[in-house]
Amino acid sequence: MSLPNSKVSLTVVRPTDALDLDVLYRAHAPVVARWASRLAGPSADVEDLVQEIFLVVERRLSEFRGEAKVTTWLYRITERVVLDARRRDRFRRWFSRARSHDIERALSSPQSTPVDALERRESSEQVYRILDRMPDKYRTVMILFELEEMSGEEIAAFTGLNPATVWVHLHRARTRFLHEMKRALGREP
Amino acid sequence: MTRIDEQTPIRERWTAQPPGSGDEEIAGALLRVAAEPRPIGEKKLAEIHARLRSNARARSRAYARPTRPLLRQVLVATGLVLLGGTLSASVLHVLHTASLRAADSAARASLPKGKPNGRSFANAEQAAETAVPAETPDPVPEAQAVVDPPRAPRRDAVRETRGLRATAQDSLTPKRALALAPPSGSSQLAQESRLLASAISKLRRDGEPEQALAVLDRLGAEFGSGALAQEATATRIEALLRLGRNAQALELLDGQTLSGKGVGREMLVARAELRADKGRYSTALRDFDQLLSVRGQTDSVTERARYGRATCRAKIGDWDGARGDFQQYLDDFPQGRFADHARAALAPRSR
Fold first, then answer.
1. What confidence score (pLDDT) does residue A16 get?
2. What is the number of other CB atoms lying within 10 angstroms of the CB of residue B307?
3. Which of B7, B23, B37 lies closest to A3 in CB terms?
4. Is B316's Cβ below 8 Å from some Cβ in A?
5. What b/e string do you get for B38-66 counting C-beta neighbours within 10 Å, with b at 16 or more?
6. What is the ipTM of this complex?
7. Cis peptide before B19 (omega within 30 of 0)
8. How far apart are CA B188 and CA B190, in angstroms?
9. Comparing C-alpha atoms, which of A78, A51, A79, A45 is closest to residue B213?
């Protein structure tokens, strides 16, 4: 599946450029918003997350030495902020299991009415419930590879993992995803 | 489970697989649903940008304001005078304490042992009462958010509540803000209430929620769960809602026990809407039920609660309940702001 604008922004801010929050925001806010949305899932308040991320960026602007790409630096801040937000939410979230009819509904053909859009959002929440049962390291790799359509090498650069480790994590994530999905569909105890 | 040697090569995406009935095809289809982008519109991004810039400006005003040489000299001189005064007072205090100790020990020697003097306790209580601000500031929540399925309270909805904001500001005119300022004194309570009054003033009079939050942070750091912790929390919630930081506001609201009366009603409906927005329909319904348990009200809170409950009921599949609420909404608020949505929900659907 090819998603519009699903690749990482190609706008490059050179290390020698004076980093400015406005410049960074204009160049990278859309991609940061998309990362936050994908990593946090459909129930998250993406606007809050984006604001929080750029507040951190602003605080740490002076610490950026240009040793990594700006996008990598921004991604790591995004991942950290999203992780913190998920931790905060986790302890009070009702962690209900994905029901099989919800999963089956998610597989139905795409519709266009507002109600169907709502149903699809809820189906997307079910998918994230499956993803949320994985350890963060597997979940992140799965999201970046399957949803964000990054290559293994890009994932390695963004997360700081060894490329071989990325594939190992992806393999384990897939195995777990299939297992949880079949449980949700009632095909496996 | 699919065997390892039957699995799709690791570098091929499941989401790129054609539809099918195999496990991986099903997983791919599911992931494609989740992969549909849910981007923030340019307008929202611009709003966030504006908030970030105003935040940066506020800080630069606070910390980087150029100080004129004369002003600097005056400040230094004032500081020296204050320092000298503090030192003198300390010396006098030490001397005075020593003389009091001597007098006290002489008095103890001349009095029989017994209970402490009742009058001194009464005086202490009186002193404590005067340290408490005469009026506790009203925490007026700004969450005039709207449950508008599937998206409920958003920043713009919060900001659209000019009417309520006007009420909030009317309730704290500069004159009244000064009246709210606690009596000068050095007790812990007096200091705590002074900081809280400053936060409320920044929030409602100056319209600077970020600065109000900074003062509240200071309040929290210095006094922790002090005597005015509850009021501080209410003020923080209001500030967060004004900034559109709904998730954080909800986190705080979740920890509150709210009554369905007065200001509690506003906070309760805000919490219910924020919970509904997060898909926490059962807890949202509890709040909406509490709000609607009082019959005969037709204020804006009731309007929001009626529509919000209808929406939540529809989301959990309680169609009869939802229809009842939508109908009741139209009976009570035929020209209400959600009337069109309610009519659309009640209209027969053709699929």
1. 37
2. 28
3. B37
4. no
5. eebeeebbebbbebbeebeebeeeeeeee
6. 0.72
7. no
8. 5
9. A51
